[in-house]
Specification:
Layout: H1 2-28, H2 32-44, H3 50-62, H4 66-79, H5 84-94, H6 108-117, H7 122-145, H8 149-182, E1 184-188, E2 192-196, E3 205-210, E4 214-221, E5 224-228, E6 234-238, E7 242-244
Antiparallel strand pairs: 1-4, 1-7, 2-3, 4-5, 5-6
Length: about 240
């Protein structure tokens, strides 16, 4: 059974690798629609990486699918938040979005905390916290086992530093996990979206938005999303018009 599982895993990886190379070749040849289909086939099979999302975003941008392009850049950035290529292409795509949402400037301390909290991806933060915890436990064990007084003094300093760093990164990880489960964002995919005051066709039209705008999703009801913009405006849009990040 283990051998069969191993072979299946290898075949699956080879299939995805072949699809990825095919998609890249199609992109280079200017066959953007076919490249998009190949990248999406990889994702639909359950495999996701920032490279696939990034390349899919590039293909969508070349194919004049602005909303899907921004959506996939955002998904790539969530997995690789320090990647400069993703940031650059996302900023470039956002320049072509019709609606410019002016968000209020946050208090500088809040901005510093937010930047630090989002500097690492969730996976990287988890590895950092686990490494710090392991080091903390290791030095405690060594300080107990080893008899050297000099080592114990050094170990106590290291344990103190590790514990402080662990608390900082552990707290950051908890806030990121909380945000991951409580905050949900999306990108408008339709060329024009009417935002209404209630989740129904007959709802009062409040304003309209265009493809590519990033929104925070606050509620879901009967095929509708309640959204919030960066400037604080809220309303309801049809669920099918939004791609979730």
């Amino acid at each position: 059974m283990l051998m069969l599982l191993s072979l299946a895993t290898v075949n699956y990886a080879d299939h995805n690798s072949h699809l990825y190379e095919t998609a890249n070749a199609l992109y280079e040849e200017g066959e953007y629609a076919q490249a998009i289909a190949a990248y999406e086939e990889i994702l639909s099979g359950g495999y996701a990486s920032w490279e696939v999302y990034y390349n899919l975003g590039n293909a969508c941008y070349k194919n004049a699918e602005l909303g899907k392009s921004i959506l996939n850049y955002e998904r790539a950035l969530a997995m690789a938040p320090k990647n400069e290529d993703i940031k650059y292409n996302l900023a470039l795509a956002n320049l072509t979005v019709v609606d410019k949402i002016d968000a209020p400037e946050p208090f500088f301390l809040f901005k510093i905390v937010s930047d630090f909290k989002n500097y690492f991806s969730l996976n990287v933060l988890s590895v950092i916290v686990l490494t710090l915890y392991s080091g903390f436990i290791l030095f405690i064990i060594l300080s107990i086992v080893l008899r050297s007084r000099n080592f114990r003094k050094t170990a106590m300093v290291l344990i103190t530093l590790l514990s402080i760093t662990f608390v900082v990164f552990g707290t950051t990880l908890l806030f990121r996990i909380k945000d991951h489960h409580s905050l949900k964002y999306g990108i408008l995919l339709a060329p024009k979206v009417e935002v209404t005051g209630s989740p129904e066709e007959s709802g009062t039209e409040l304003f309209s938005l265009h493809e590519g705008v990033k929104v925070q999703i606050e509620k879901e009801m009967d095929g509708w999303y309640q959204i919030r913009l960066e400037d604080g405006k809220t309303g309801w849009v049809k669920k099918i018009t939004v791609g979730t990040i």
